[in-house]
């Protein structure tokens, strides 16, 4: 048993050798990456179009570009401020999606990884009320930094 364990330790040690850099053939294969909602921001009469795919916001310029799509400067400013305040851990990046435009704010937003991109869906309460100015709801979330299938800001 000791001999087998010694060989196993040696093989595991050899398997760990290398320069630590992934080879070109290495591909991230985590089928269920963690997607965490950071904030749900809303603005009245801000415009924007609901999307089911999150937009990756890898840097400040991308955040500014994403925020510029809104007619309401207040919502754009809130997106920028929330992105600035977000604690983005190593290995993750920010992403955002307009999840609803209407009279109600979503009660729940869910992000999943599917088809090479972050898919976003929102649960919006049913309502018969009519609103004069729709509310735009933007979900800001953390996604793994290896996700590159989502469109980047500026590529809309």
Automatic annotation (TrEMBL):
This is Lipoprotein. It comes from Nocardioides agri.
């Amino acid at each position: 048993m000791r001999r087998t364990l010694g060989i196993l330790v040696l093989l595991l040690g050899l398997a760990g050798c290398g320069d630590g850099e992934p080879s070109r053939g290495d591909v991230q294969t985590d089928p269920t990456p963690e997607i965490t909602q950071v904030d749900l921001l809303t603005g009245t009469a801000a415009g924007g179009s609901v999307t089911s795919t999150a937009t990756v916001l890898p840097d400040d310029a991308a955040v500014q570009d994403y925020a510029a799509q809104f007619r309401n400067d207040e919502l754009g400013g809130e997106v920028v401020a929330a992105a600035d305040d977000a604690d983005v851990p190593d290995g993750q990046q920010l992403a955002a999606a307009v999840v609803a435009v209407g009279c109600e704010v979503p009660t729940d937003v869910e992000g999943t990884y599917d088809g090479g991109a972050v898919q976003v869906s929102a649960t919006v309460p049913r309502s018969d009320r009519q609103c004069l100015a729709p509310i735009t709801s933007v979900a800001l979330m953390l996604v793994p930094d290896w996700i590159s299938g989502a469109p980047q800001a500026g590529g809309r």
